[in-house]
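Quick review question:
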């Protein structure tokens, strides 16, 4: 039997690991973007996504969009601590 935490890591989810954002080599799009941008640019990218998901939350995906807001805030904070 597969441990639930491990099983969740393997399965894409719409917030943390959306399957449609994983390339053929297994690299997630967010990592390619992070590697292509400076820290300041990446933080700006994250802040733009925070605005986007906050804006559309009530009319589209509700709590899922708010989870994405949190995820992008975490990405921005991580970038500043690297």
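Suggested answer, residue by residue:
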């Amino acid at each position: 039997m597969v441990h639930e935490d491990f099983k969740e890591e393997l399965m894409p989810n719409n917030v943390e690991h959306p399957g449609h954002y994983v390339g053929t080599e297994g690299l997630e799009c967010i990592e390619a973007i992070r590697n292509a941008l400076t820290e300041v640019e990446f933080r700006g990218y994250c802040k733009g996504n925070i605005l986007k998901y906050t804006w559309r939350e009530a009319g589209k995906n509700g709590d899922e969009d708010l989870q994405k807001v949190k995820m992008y805030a975490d990405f921005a904070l991580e970038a500043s601590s690297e």
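Why it works: Residues 4-81 form one domain. The CA atoms of residues 1 and 7 lie 10 Å apart.
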